[in-house]
Amino acid sequence: MRKNLVAGNWKMNMTYQDGLALVSEITNMVADEATGSTAEVVICPPFPFLHSIGKLLPQGGNIHLGAQNCHQKESGAYTGEVSAKMLQSVGVEYVILGHSERRQYFGETDELLSQKLKAALGAGLKPIFCVGESLETREADETFAYLEKQLKDGLFHLSNEEFDQVTVAYEPIWAIGTGKTATSAQAQEVHAFIREQIARAYDAEAAQNTTILYGGSANAQNARELFSQPDVDGGLIGGASLKSRDFTEIIKSF
Ligand code: 3PY
Q1: DSSP letters of 214-245?
Q2: HAMAP family in the record, alphabetically (predicted)?
């Protein structure tokens, strides 16, 4: 069901001790200051911290646990990998799939991501599926065709019931870690396009019910403006999720 959602993607940052301290600060600040926010919050730390951080999150509260990736197989001889079922067994609810850094540095293709989606859903996780174009694609005026293909090849193979569990994140690659943010008009234009594609692939109800996040240098200064757009339901936050004050301000933007 469509909701306001703010997810913090820590990427490969923080030590265990720093991570625990950050989460304690966030939970305290959210409890003190963000009680009026309508946003569901997801914190996505690195794998080794998940279980302990999950234990720090207030039971039944609005802060949930997410992972940044999972393997496409349920179990087996895949040294160094982590399955969706393992994540679920330590209390993880959400998993980010298809972040552009995974696509770029780890060669993740739409074909592989479609398998990861199935694995995540099979384990009862809620995927946050990322799509987004490069600067060259945008400058060549091919953004919409590119996104259409990413959605079709990576995501739209899911059944209606499976798709119901998915959150989509639009993360233009040119805005990730660069300090450049899409303008709220650029974000809105793409989010409306994504919703239109969902309506075509599924139906109007599915499109209206899908939560679509913006990601890419979203921060405490620009969140309110981005989230005020009718098709922007929240954010997948990188660097600003590592600072309790900034992350709380973003949550308070709702
Ligand atoms: C960013 O904000 O840079 C992100 O990549 C969030 O996932």
Answers
A1: EESS--TTTHHHHHTSTT--EEEESGGGGSHH
A2: TIM_B
Nearest ligand 1 atom to the CA of 100 is 5
Q: Tell me what pLDDT residue 70 has.
A: 98
Give per-residue pLDDT as tens, 95-130.
Answer: 999 999 999 999 999 999 999 999 999 999 999 999
Instruction: Give the three-class secondary structure for 195.
Output: helix
Is there a binding annotation on residue 174?
no
We report the CATH number of the domain holding residue 175 as 3.20.20.70
pLDDT tier at 181, thresholds 50, 70, 90: confident
Average of per-residue pLDDT values in the chain = 96
What is the structure's pLDDT at 167?
98
What is the spatial distance between Cα 151 and Cα 166, in angstroms, rounded to a whole number?
Answer: 12
- Which of 64, 71, 99, 191 is the catalytic position? 99
Given the cut 0.85, state whether the ipTM is greater than it: yes
Q: Is 52 labelled as part of a ligand binding site? A: no
Closest-CA residue, ligand 1 atom 6, reads 238
Q: What sign has the CA pseudo-torsion 102, 93, 117, 203?
A: negative
Range of the domain at 222: 5-252
DSSP for 115-147, written as a single string: HHHHHHHHTT-EEEEEE---HHHHHTT-HHHHH
